Amino acid sequence: MTPSSSDRAAEESYDVVVIGGGPGGSTAATLVAMDGHRVLLLEKEMFPRFQIGESLLPVTIHGVCRLLGALPEIEKASFMPKRGGTFRWGASPEPWNFLFAYSPMLRGETSEAYQVERMKFDEILLRNASRQGVHVQEGVSVTGVIEEDGRVAGVRYTGADGAARTVRAAYVVDASGSRSSLYRAVGERHYSSFFQNLALFGYFEGGGRLPGPDRGNILCCAFDEGWFWYIPLSDTLTSVGAVVRREYAGGIQNDPEAAFRRFIDRCPMVRDLLKDAPRSRHEVYGRLRVRKDYSYSMSRFWRPGMVLVGDAACFIDPVFSTGVHLATYSGLLAARSINSYLAGDLDEDRSFAEFNDRYRREYRVFYEFLAAFYDMQADTGSYYWQAKKVSGMEGGELEAFASLVGGTTAEAGLLLNGASSQLVEAVARTGPAQTESGERMGALFGAPVVAEVMREMNQIQAGVLGNPHKQPPLLPSDLVPSPDHLRWAESAVVAARPAATVGSKEG
């Protein structure tokens, strides 16, 4: 059937189409455009728009956002700085702190991250994508993908004016999040049997702050039914959320306000911080929200012509604030693979196998670590935490922990200044770990699963910082990031590779 003139007029052509304007989509789109390709980004909502996931990691700020050219705008936004985190977790009643500065990769200016209002942060990245040459359309709805000869060749969408359109592209990036159904064009979603939680969250004005240099820390506080996040977004605004097991869904859905008050009363540390704090009346922040926090991973992260990034590919429990990290990291990996493929540097299978294996590895490392963390940080009187105490953490593991939760385990080369300062200088910048709000991390890890993950982290971070081309390859493919981080390149270093990650409870 020959297309009519109106059909042809409604059809567009780009090198790459990105679906979704969140951090993952903005990252992928920007880095592909920076390599000289024509990129269309389609976003369903009009920015700024609300999103959860407000606690960021240093590698996102000082690595990916610097690479995107967005760091100056982020620094001007006056987001709340965070130097690490504070945990009241498990059998011990005393909180403990970790500092990003304990990681050899995160010393000096990279030893802090930010707590951000996602409405502001995400818009900074999206507007930056536009400045970098991405054609951004908001208020449009992608209705399906075009498939031809076994590959994805574009998408169909409804424009802001209500007109149906078709856009063809050499590659499609699905960064549309967990609620979109577009991922079904790539594979099947497999849910974890271990992490099946609900998050009930809201915002408060005038909530208390941890003392001294810990005032910007994220607080993760366990109670019998689950755990709370407590994130200071500004001097007055605080994001507070309870993550609980799915068996509490009925009570939450019947009366979320009563359930939230009950959970707060069950967690004395959070209750005390909120004792004089009313709920926000802001038009966006003034209501409670419920989100299903079921961890999952796709059976495939890509197929010919289409790649999944961020929550479209996988989601992991948020206790270590990995959501935006995994989104931007996967956007970076996808951009490298797309750029390498379009330039003819690598064939499609090899280029996207590198994306798949690196991203799946990052997800599984966090998944395995979190499963052990939940298992081991147990209160023997709680039916939520599996009872088990741990002890005997060495100094090297402390550094590896800070590196892991700082997001540096696979992309040390993004932090070009990471090893230039000594620990004493970094701690002087952000403050000591032993403060009024908590002791330094001490006896924490001892189970074999954590020891094996930590050994792998140390091996990876023994690589050479600076030019990524001179780093040992992470995978048997012998590929490393190109010097400008925009493509894959053959490794210039022959080195022993880290051991494979441990078996997983995923599935």
From TrEMBL:
Oxidoreductase is among the record's keywords: yes
Signal peptide stretch: none
Keyword annotations from UniProtKB, A to Z: Monooxygenase, Oxidoreductase
Claim: Oxidoreductase is one of the keywords in the record: yes
Domain of life: Bacteria
Family in the record: Belongs to the flavin-dependent halogenase family. Bacterial tryptophan halogenase subfamily.
Name the record gives this protein: Tryptophan 7-halogenase
Lineage, highest ranks first: Bacteria, Bacillati, Actinomycetota, Actinomycetes, Streptosporangiales
